[in-house]
Design goal:
about 80 residues, mainly alpha, 4 helices, about 70% helix
């Protein structure tokens, strides 16, 4: 996962926020929130909805992984 180390934190944070709150302006709620609610209710069945969840959640997941990886690297042995 060395490729993840090459992505700057600020860039990943900006992308995660932008895709996390898209579309602008959010009608009732952002797509990511809507898709997570659909997933929790078992209504996420259309391929386009699954792709949309993947698209909007990927930067946030990468940001979390990068943060955890950074914390793990900074721990003394």
């Amino acid at each position: 996962m060395a490729w993840l180390d090459k992505i700057p934190f600020p860039l990943l944070l900006i992308i995660a926020v932008m895709l996390g709150i898209a579309p602008y302006p959010s009608q009732p709620q952002p797509h990511l929130v809507e898709k997570i609610i659909m997933l929790s209710q078992g209504e996420l069945s259309k391929p386009v909805d699954i792709f949309d969840l993947f698209l909007h959640a990927t930067p946030t997941i990468l940001l979390i992984l990068k943060g955890l990886r950074s914390l793990h690297k900074s721990k003394p042995a």
